[in-house]
Sequence to fold (110 residues):
Amino acid sequence: MRQGSFSRRIVDAIKKIPAGRVATYGQIAMIAGNPRAARQVVRILHTSSEKEDLPWHRVVNRHGRIALRRGSGYEFQKRRLQEEGITFGKDDRIDFKKFLWEPVDVTTNQ
DNA sequence: CTCGTGACTCCCG
DNA sequence: TCGGGAGCCACGA
Fold:
């Protein structure tokens, strides 16, 4: 993966997610520069989560639910999030009002 | 160059 | 709430 590439920006965005917070695939894609490239985030998670030491567990879908299937990492990811203080409500959904990462643009300060 | 690939998202119903 | 269909797209082969 080269510097300045789209994949690089996705990796950097994921690394910025603070502990105790979560981000959605679409959100990461948007930060990386392409709001419609959510699927690329998935790809990066597969190819670089270990190599780049990414906080992959902090990425969930737009419903605030873990995207992995039960029995295929779902429980593991849920545990990792709970260890960071993130709680799950009804239907195993995460409350975005409390835990969604809201990156602040310091340059414009809103 | 084309093509398959997704831990997605949007839009109904 | 749940599910299917269509759209989506960077990347590797």
About this structure: Chain A is about 40% helix and 5% strand.
